[in-house]
Write a structure and sequence with these properties.
single chain; disordered N terminus; alpha+beta
């Protein structure tokens, strides 16, 4: 079956038919072949053209072309029902995406509400306004960014980020991951530092 989405050979053949065998691609200067074919197709009584760039016509022409050149059996022409079914599948897919995004949003809201229970007022304000907060653990200070990978940052005495620690819980909302990192730092900092991948930032 012809590749109707990128059938340059077919397009050239049709243009050649319209110019006496000389292949001329359709441009404003050489004529509107696509419109001409639409009109001719409708005039033949096959159907009434209501949309100039009707995908069903394009597919059917390719099928007829293959049949005439190769003598092969081809699939049935695309019908309005086929187009409608495809659009229904696309709509269902987009709806599923929207539903998944809404579920993620709700889960993140719940995770952030839980995280807030463990933070000071200053930390809460920083997280909501800047997407991160700082915490002191023994003689080190960390900045925890909202995220899941490389979001634990070690700070020097001036507050500059000097190292990134990558250790996370997979498959959970960002704020749940941040809470897990926060608790791990405060309960077993040494274990977290041994487990994490370290990247020097300066």
């Amino acid at each position: 079956m012809a590749d109707y989405q990128c059938g340059n050979v077919i397009w050239a053949q049709w243009c050649g038919d319209q110019t006496g065998g000389v292949v001329t691609y359709c441009t404003p200067a050489t004529g509107d072949y696509w419109g001409y074919w639409n009109q001719g197709y409708a005039a033949s009584g096959s159907q009434t053209v209501t949309v100039k760039y009707e995908m069903g016509q394009w597919v059917e022409w390719n099928q007829m072309y293959v049949n005439s050149i190769q003598g092969q059996a081809v699939a049935h022409p695309v019908t309005p029902a086929d187009v409608q079914a495809q659009r229904a599948r696309q709509d269902a897919y987009q709806q599923q995406i929207r539903e998944n995004e809404e579920k993620k949003r709700i889960a993140e809201e719940k995770a952030e509400a839980l995280l807030m229970l463990y933070l000071t007022d200053e930390q809460k304000k920083s997280y909501k306004e800047h997407g991160h907060f700082e915490t002191q653990v023994n003689d080190r200070r960390y900045r925890l960014r909202k995220g899941s990978h490389g979001n634990v940052r070690e700070l020097d005495k001036t507050g500059k980020e000097v190292a990134s620690l990558c250790v996370n819980v997979q498959g959970v909302p960002y704020s749940d991951n941040v809470l897990a990192q926060f608790l791990a730092l405060h309960t077993d900092e040494d274990y977290l530092r041994r487990t994490a991948n370290h990247t020097r930032l300066c």
